[in-house]
Write a structure and sequence with these properties.
The protein has one domain: Aminopeptidase, CATH 3.40.630. 24% of the residues lie in helices and 34% in strands. It is built from four helices and eight strands, in the order ββααβββαβαββ. α1 crosses α2.
């Protein structure tokens, strides 16, 4: 697949694999709204070079282990969404996993408008239909109820709580775990 084969269009959005040229836009949002990272697995970047380094790491189309799309609304970068830790086959080649970890963030200016649900459904469909994934899973910090709501709207099933599994801001947090299979994806 070529890079343009990963572009996704929805009714209101364009999703494009992030590139180094998107790093400045993402950095500006994350610095302006540091609360975005309060319940994510990364800290607010202090330097543009941190965001550039991450954007240059993801989207290696040779091994497809991390796919991260920029979310564009009216041609403006407003967040990102991705399939992470994509595993097609174990190194022992005895069994296949065909799974990915799903994650996202969105500028607060665009939250509460159904944008993340719209983007999520499109990326999930891409993962199942184009990448032939068997299972997509996601987790969020217990207090991030909005993230759980997005997952439920997309058809994810709550599978349990991973107690004290994430250490942020000097304390341990529980994480809510969800998964989704193709036949459960709500259209």
């Amino acid at each position: 697949m070529k890079k343009q084969d990963f572009n996704i269009k929805t009714k209101r959005l364009t999703l494009k694999l992030v590139s180094i040229k998107d790093a400045k836009k993402a950095f500006k949002i994350l610095v302006k709204y540091p609360q975005i990272t309060d319940h994510l697995t990364f800290l607010t970047p202090k330097e543009l070079s941190e965001t550039e380094g991450y954007f240059s790491f993801v989207n290696n189309l040779e091994n497809l282990s991390e796919l991260v799309w920029g979310i564009f609304y009216e041609d403006e970068f407003i967040g990102q969404i991705g399939l992470h830790d994509i595993v097609y086959e174990s190194f022992l080649k005895k069994r296949t996993h065909d799974s990915a970890n799903f994650g996202y963030w969105l500028s607060p200016e665009y939250q509460g408008k159904g944008i993340m649900t719209e983007a999520s459904k499109a990326v999930l469909a891409f993962g199942f239909e184009k990448l032939n994934l068997h299972r997509i899973y996601a987790k969020h910090i217990d207090v991030n109820k909005a993230s759980g709501n997005v997952l439920i709207k997309c058809g994810f099933k709550f599978i349990g709580t991973d107690r004290h599994s994430a250490f942020y801001d000097g304390k341990w947090w529980d994480e809510k775990l969800y998964d989704l299979f193709l036949e459960e994806l709500k259209k």
